[in-house]
Amino acid sequence: MSGEDESAYFVPVVVSDGREILDRAGKRSLVFDTVFHPSINDRGSKDADYRTFITEIALERIEEKSGLVLGREISTPNISSKGPLTPRTVLVPYFPSNDTQSSITGKPLVEEIDSKPAVTTTAEQTPQWRRDSPGEKGVKGRIIVEVPKLTRTLHSQSTLDIEPNRIILHIPGVYALDIPLDNSGGDHEIDVNEARAQWIVEDKKLVVTW
């Protein structure tokens, strides 16, 4: 990658669940959405090696999520997408600059890190969570997730996917949480454009509001 050390380069990506579709020939295809920050587009359009690097990241994350083993013979048909693209908003929790709730700043979405995270074989747990009263004016809903094992190192690898009726949290090797939200009981559907996520370090909690 133009002389850069790939082992010290981390690119966040969120991978959707696989879904089956029928292509124009009537053949079944398994489709995954991989969501990257748009800041990679400029370099990817000019640097073939970087495009290959990003493609490899996508394949590795799909393999990690699905358990599939994918080949590396890649073709790119002249189509915009395999099946319809559905609206999707992905939020990555803000990273606090210190251990207080009041001082929180966002981390760069593409950043250099010292080394690769240690590989772990620990089974991922489902963290405890609850719905809480909105509290603040203008807040329609609030979910609190207990994350006592979340650290600064793990935070850089964590993803939070917020959809209108679903919240998915993944902290590799530690936590996996998928919350389907039933709005039939009067709960408010999440406005993904207004949703916010906050890691409160001192309380060891992740708070999602909308």
UniProtKB/TrEMBL annotation:
InterPro entries associated with the record: PIH1/Kintoun_subfamily (IPR050734), PIH1_N (IPR012981)
What is an annotated GO biological process for this record, any one?
rRNA processing
Q: Where is this region: Disordered?
A: 118-137
Domain PIH1 N-terminal as annotated: residue spans: 3-90
Name one matching Pfam family: PIH1
Q: Which residues form the signal peptide?
A: none
What ranges does the record list as Polar residues composition bias? 118-128
CC annotations in GO: cytoplasm; R2TP complex; ribonucleoprotein complex
Record family assignment: Belongs to the PIH1 family.
PANTHER family given in the database record: PIH1 DOMAIN-CONTAINING PROTEIN 1
Protein name, as recorded: PIH1 N-terminal domain-containing protein
Question: What is the organism of origin for this protein?
Answer: Botryobasidium botryosum (strain FD-172 SS1)
Phylogenetic classification of the source organism: Eukaryota, Fungi, Dikarya, Basidiomycota, Agaricomycotina
